[in-house]
Amino acid sequence: EAGVTQFPSHSVIEKGQTVTLRCDPISGHDNLYWYRRVMGKEIKFLLHFVKESKQDESGMPNNRFLAERTGGTYSTLKVQPAELEDSGVYFCASSQVSLAGVYEQYFGPGTRLTVT
Amino acid sequence: RKEVEQDPGPFNVPEGATVAFNCTYSNSASQSFFWYRQDCRKEPKLLMSVYSSGNEDGRFTAQLNRASQYISLLIRDSKLSDSATYLCVVSKDSGGSNYKLTFGKGTLLTVNP
Prior knowledge:
The complex is a heterodimer of chains A (116) and B (113).
Chain A: E1 5-7, E2 10-13, E3 19-24, E4 31-37, E5 43-50, E6 53-56, E7 65-68, E8 75-79, E9 88-97, E10 103-107, E11 111-115
Parallel strand pairs in A: 2-11
Antiparallel strand pairs in A: 1-3, 3-8, 4-5, 4-9, 5-6, 7-8, 9-10, 9-11
Chain B: E1 4-6, E2 11-14, E3 19-25, E4 32-38, E5 44-50, E6 55-57, E7 60-65, E8 70-75, E9 84-91, E10 101-103, E11 107-112
Parallel strand pairs in B: 2-11
Antiparallel strand pairs in B: 1-3, 3-8, 4-5, 4-9, 6-7, 7-8, 9-10, 9-11
């Protein structure tokens, strides 16, 4: 079974530019999450989709971030315009309900974003 | 106060040592508890879920004390391959099947030959 995939693995852009990150969850996983780790800080939740619906975007830093999940399959996270503080590693995770009732989340390898 | 606090580390131990990680969480409504491990420049991977009764998986033992809001992970007979950052993670049902994870900052473990 293929795991969660993310593209690109690295992105270096200049302040003010736009970047779009993509996540392909594990097939059949309705739940999709975006997280971010800024250097020196803990991994933090950004938002959650169930299929194509945004359930919780309370972790999105500001309106420069836009996430979509058209058709309930892959998701994109766009940053426009990018600022220096947006640098970090963006992780995507997906989950399905486990038999134990505990939602186990599987993470993708992350996209390392550097804004210069 | 951070939602999940871990030993800052780093821990450097010789092979075969026993090492313990401690973690506290602030939200008493937290429902699920995990230890993830993260290798350098890789994604977090679930090591084990933590249950109130405590649970063991080979050399790894996890404990949960809900009253104290405390979670622990014990690694016995540590191996070189155990070197990684260990992340304490909690979650709760935030509605709409949203079990967003709240992470600690992680504790780096290096096992030396």
